[in-house]
Design a protein that fits this description.
Layout (H helix, E strand, L loop, with lengths): L2 H30 L10 H22 L5 H11 L4 H26 L3 H5 L1 H32 L5
Helix pairs in contact: 1-3, 1-4, 2-3, 2-4
Length: 156
C-alpha cells in the first residue's frame, strides 16, 4: 500500500462524501421540515440548526470528523442549516486533512506495536468507545441541566 495513494484516496472520499451530504441537506433538507406538527423535524429545529451552524459551524465540522456517527450527519445538518458553502468547504477540507493525517500516521505508527497487531479488535472497540464518550457526557450534562431547570419554581 503506497502512502501517498492512500492519503489521496481517503481525502477524495472524505471530500466527495461531505460535499454530497452537504448538498443533499441544502437542497432536500428544508422540504423535510415543512410539517408544522412534526415533533422531530419541524421549522423550529431548522431555525435552531441554522443558528447553531452560524455560531459553532466551523468547530462542529472539524470536530465531528473525529466522532463516529456524528461525522455522517454534520455535513447534512450544515446544509439544512444553510451554513455558507465557502465556510463549510474551508472547514470540511481542514477537518478532512487533519483526520486523514492523524489516522494514517497513527495507523502507521501503531501497526508496529505487537500488542496492537495481536489485539486489533480490542483496540478498535476502545477507539469507538473513546470517540463516543464526549457525546455521552454532553447528553448527560444536557439532561441534568434540563432536570434542574424543570425543578426551578416559577415566580408568581
Amino acid at each position: 500500500l503506497r502512502l501517498p495513494v492512500a492519503v489521496g484516496v481517503l481525502l477524495a472520499a472524505v471530500f466527495l462524501g461531505d460535499n454530497t451530504n452537504y448538498w443533499i441537506g441544502r437542497r432536500l433538507g428544508p422540504a423535510v421540515f415543512r410539517r408544522e406538527d412534526s415533533r422531530l423535524l419541524n421549522k423550529k429545529h431548522l431555525t435552531r440548526a441554522h443558528e447553531f451552524y452560524e455560531k459553532y459551524g466551523a468547530k462542529t465540522i472539524i470536530l465531528a470528523r473525529f466522532v463516529p456517527i456524528v461525522r455522517t450527519f454534520a455535513p447534512f445538518v450544515a446544509g439544512i442549516g444553510k451554513m455558507s458553502y465557502p465556510r463549510f468547504l474551508a472547514f470540511s477540507v481542514l477537518g478532512a486533512v487533519l483526520w486523514v493525517s492523524i489516522c494514517i500516521t497513527a495507523g502507521y505508527k501503531l501497526a508496529n506495536i505487537e500488542f496492537i497487531r495481536k489485539h486489533f479488535d480490542l483496540v478498535a472497540v476502545a477507539i469507538v468507545i473513546i470517540s463516543v464518550l464526549p457525546m455521552v457526557f454532553e447528553y448527560l450534562r444536557a439532561r441534568r441541566e434540563s432536570k434542574r431547570a424543570a425543578n426551578v419554581p416559577v415566580p408568581e
